[in-house]
Fold this sequence. Notes:
The protein is an alpha/beta fold. It has two domains: 19-163, no CATH class; 169-296, Rossmann fold. It has eight helices and eight strands, in the order ααααβαββαβαβαβββ. It has helices at residues 19-58, 72-88, 100-125, 133-163, 178-188, 219-225, 240-252, 263-268; strands at residues 169-174, 195-201, 212-214, 230-233, 256-259, 278-280, 283-285, 295-296. A six-stranded mixed sheet has the order 3-2-1-4-5-8, with helices on both faces. The termini are far apart.
Amino acid sequence: MIEAPxxxxxxxxxxxxxxxxxxxxxxxxxxxxxxxxLGDIFAIAVAFAxxxxxxxxxxxxxxxxxxxxxxxxxxxxxxxxxxxxxxLMRMYLPRRGTSHIDQLGALxxxxxxxxxxxxxxxAFSLRGLDVPRQILVYAWALSIVFVWLVRSLIEFxxxxxxxxxxxxxxLLIIGxxxxxxxxxxxxxxxxxxxYEVVGFIDEDxxxxxxxxxxxxxxxxxxxxxxxxxxxxxxxxxxxxxQILDIVGMCDRAHVGVKIFPDLFHLAVREVSxxxxxxxxxxxxxxxxxxxxxxxxxxxxxxx
Length: 303
């Protein structure tokens, strides 16, 4: 009797990330946010202390230098104002692929606004104490530098954790043409972003070399079954009405949507996985990095 040759079973990825990965992702994000807050407080306090020392060193009348302890209420106002400003500017939300240059630009704006607010509050609350302008200028500049350095270190730690698979985010790509394949390549070549590509949605392509899961009709089921957290629309053939339908489906599933840019942007810019302006409930916020596309995030922020 001739036995049929055994066919090796194909292993299929689980539709959802393992519970351990999902739990570790929450812990990593909680630790990241806590580290940012504590790091900002530390960096702001150190920056003010350095500013005081620089001002004291350059002061021509040493007997006129006020004790650092006299400025502690001012430091408190400054810390509260800057932390509140960072929170209002959504700078405590974990992001994927944010560039250091964009972060530095955001810090410049936030620290400037926070310093103005802190000095206004301090002027009304501490009428007897006049903080020297030199200290204010030094503290403003050093706060930007120190906060940026501390945040860069924390961001590096988050990237290491994501590279180790501790904060995974499942990504679905709509469009299996060259744009979609480029996104897939860039995501897989940047594991520190923490994305796991579950597959493609495409109406026409059936290329066996790509994991195509179906057409737009099965998008809601794919989002649910595979635990998708982000969707990238990279199909130039889609109509405006189809894109709105995709946004609506993702909105109901509380999944973020990012729109890939046109071919010109793809040609002149290196692709990286967090895309351009995101819209959340009518407001706009900038994200950077797999490509710099315009993006729509209609549902609650997951990241």
